[in-house]
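Q: Hi! First time doing this. I have a protein sequence and I read that you can turn it into a structure. Is that right? Here it is:
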Amino acid sequence: MSDWSVKLHEGIHAIPAEIWDGCAGADNPFISHAFLSALEDSKSVCPDAGWMPRHIALHAPDGTLAGLCPAYFKMHSWGEYVFDQRWAQAFEAAGGHYYPKLLSAVPFSPVTGPRLLIHPDAPAETSVIMTDAIRQICESLEFSSAHITFCTVEESNITTGRDWLPRLGVQYHWHNNGYKSFDDFLAALSSRKRKTIKRERRDATADLTFHVLRGTDITEADWADFYRFYENTIDRKWSSAYLTPEFFTLLSQRLGERVVLMQARSGTRTVAAALNLMGTDTLYGRNWGCEGEWPFLHFELCYYQAIDFAIAHGLKRVEAGAQGEHKIQRGYQPVLTHSAHWLCNSSFRNSVSTFLEHERAAIKERIDELNTLSPYRSDES
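A: Yes, that's right. Below is the predicted 3D structure, encoded as structure tokens:
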């Protein structure tokens, strides 16, 4: 990296939006300046929450900006969805200090996308140099580790080639195989699964109406309803509300039509809502919540309405978030997610490497098992 230089920025606003987005591109809203600034400006991401922004800017030898990387110093492992708490416990039990650590990720968002945001005019080797820069930052600060979560396959391959440890996960995505309507999608399923989904949709919609709001059409009252539902879901899961109310209003102001809020109403009263963000070819399901007990409402609002929207807008995929094997029976298919990890202590690194080797084998085997549960007809290509 001689002649290349790195600077850490203590907030997204230190980098102008046009410069950041010029590297990030327009495909994925989660790595946009608008999304990341909404997190910081709403205090959802801040030092008091254990997230210290340290966004990385890499400059080529001629001084031009070659790439950016969303990065944070972390004092815990909450809100990441790639769980390393057992690593932390083991390292600290051996006398080490696991925190702070360096994390490149989108906070609270288990969404795959680029993490090494390379300028279109940067040299071909920039991704490799950025990977080495992240590791060197970690080592120079004497942190235990650096992590890049939910990165692309290409980034995983680059980091693995630089001796980072690869980690796999599983999510469930719906793929649009050129469907013209929801019925067209249903026709690709086995008869039994098709009947099940029709029954679920019929029961879910019997007493409710469904509405899609986008961008600035979402009012403060809509967001107040949504946040109440969001807190209900958090309470049921015995979890913490990472996101503040201000985050959601900033989101619709800054991302506009890319924010898609789906509501369920009983008469004039909104009883449930699901938040989605729309990329160039993907609808990303994020948070949801409801009041009361409504049969199959979660499936309808988060899965089937999302498929309807994707078909109507010509999107290729719906990513419905982390976990949930029940999504398979509703047309969502298991896919691998990727993360990369650098551990500075060699003994610790060797132990984790062995663990990850076994974990990867188990996950690949599990993917094969899950694929046998596919609801699609055997003649579906």
